[in-house]
């Protein structure tokens, strides 16, 4: 059945309005109206007073339509309008539903790390990597949050000067599925540190090994009522107990150890001093000395074997969460050799050769630090930050906040 032309449509509609159609032709027209959008559109124009094919208005044009036909046409227009509204509303609700589903996923499955480390594991691994790779720096308070498909964390970075800890910036971390990005936001945009260490050479090279003494000169010039940080290197690899046998004679705190993990000897061939990005060690104050979920106590200068065992156990924990660990380690590495080194290789080396130290960061009264000059085992002294005396003063004042 061929579709009528526009002229035939106009003629047929006008004939209907003039009452020239038979009952059979009217029934046929009604049937076509229900199936043909063109007919419906033309009749809607007629009902509004427009003559088909012209812009002239005829207010009386709609008067020849039966009431039931007018009602059906108007009802059909209303339903088409309602369908459009419902369709748009459904599309909008569907989009909102999809967003809610994704957000729910981000805050349950993703945020709780069902497909990776849990939030507590993320915090522990990140804290370890910070303190193991940044001499003298530890992770303080942390906060976490989730945006769409992204788990974010922020860790305060702290350093100890004397008895007090000072905030030096923040570490920010984003986890998007298996992709990890991180950055250090130091206070003032930069972090000044003098924590570098010289790896002990073989016995035959000891005589030619350069040894800076400028740190002792600096400490001698600083006033009595101050506390300072000092990085010292060892002429030989020492165990914990060998180190504590020396340092126990002084009123000082050890805040970081530089540990021989197998790659340092090779690195020292190209780098006279090993610092951030090259050095690896740990802050003794943040390790978990026992099964207690909190930090259990340990002798200030002692229990070397227990310290070594705890350190290896923490390295094993990093191995158990290797994906996050290696991603964070690569972000900290400066040298390709360090970037390729895995935590398993470090662990296996220390397991076979023992946990040996070649440097430390100590803090305390400035003149007490100067006394370390008499220890022949300590070399390459490098002074860090200095502050006013806070070593044994009574903490009588509180903290006043802005309000």
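Q: What amino acid sequence fits the structure above?
A:
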């Amino acid at each position: 059945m061929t579709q009528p032309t526009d002229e035939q449509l106009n003629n047929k509609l006008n004939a209907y309005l003039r009452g020239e159609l038979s009952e059979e032709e009217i029934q046929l027209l009604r049937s076509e109206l229900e199936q043909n959008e063109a007919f419906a559109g033309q009749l809607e124009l007629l009902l509004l007073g427009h003559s088909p094919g012209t812009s002239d208005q005829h207010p009386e044009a709609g008067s020849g339509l039966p009431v039931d036909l007018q009602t059906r046409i108007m009802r059909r227009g209303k339903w088409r309008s309602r369908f459009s509204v419902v369709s748009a509303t459904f599309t909008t609700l569907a989009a909102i539903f999809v967003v809610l589903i994704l957000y729910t996923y981000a805050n349950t499955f993703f945020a709780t790390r069902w497909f990776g480390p849990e939030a507590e594991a993320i915090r522990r691994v990140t804290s370890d990597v910070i303190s193991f790779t940044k001499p003298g720096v530890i992770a303080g308070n942390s906060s976490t949050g989730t945006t769409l498909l992204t788990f974010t964390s922020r860790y305060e970075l702290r350093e100890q000067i004397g008895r007090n800890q000072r905030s030096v910036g923040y570490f920010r971390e984003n986890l998007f599925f298996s992709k990890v990005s991180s950055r250090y936001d130091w206070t003032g945009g930069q972090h000044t540190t003098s924590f570098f260490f010289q790896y002990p050479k073989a016995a035959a090279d000891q005589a030619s090994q350069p040894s800076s003494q400028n740190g002792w000169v600096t400490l001698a010039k600083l006033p009595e009522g101050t506390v300072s940080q000092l990085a010292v290197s060892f002429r030989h690899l020492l165990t914990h107990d060998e180190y504590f046998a020396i340092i126990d004679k002084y009123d000082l705190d050890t805040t970081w150890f530089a540990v021989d993990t197998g790659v340092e000897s090779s690195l020292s061939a190209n780098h006279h001093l090993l610092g951030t990005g090259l050095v690896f060690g740990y802050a003794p104050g943040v390790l978990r000395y026992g099964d207690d979920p909190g930090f259990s106590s340990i002798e200030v200068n002692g229990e070397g074997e227990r310290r070594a065992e705890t350190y290896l156990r923490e390295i094993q924990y990093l191995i158990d969460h290797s994906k996050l660990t290696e991603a964070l380690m690569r972000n900290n590495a400066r040298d390709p050799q360090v970037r390729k080194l895995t935590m398993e290789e470090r662990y296996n080396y220390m397991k076979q050769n023992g946990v040996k130290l070649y440097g430390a960061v100590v803090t305390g009264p400035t003149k007490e630090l100067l006394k370390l000059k008499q220890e022949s085992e300590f070399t390459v002294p490098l002074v860090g930050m200095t502050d006013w005396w806070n070593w044994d003063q009574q903490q009588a004042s509180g903290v006043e906040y802005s309000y």
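Q: And what stands out in the fold?
A: The radius of gyration is 40 Å.
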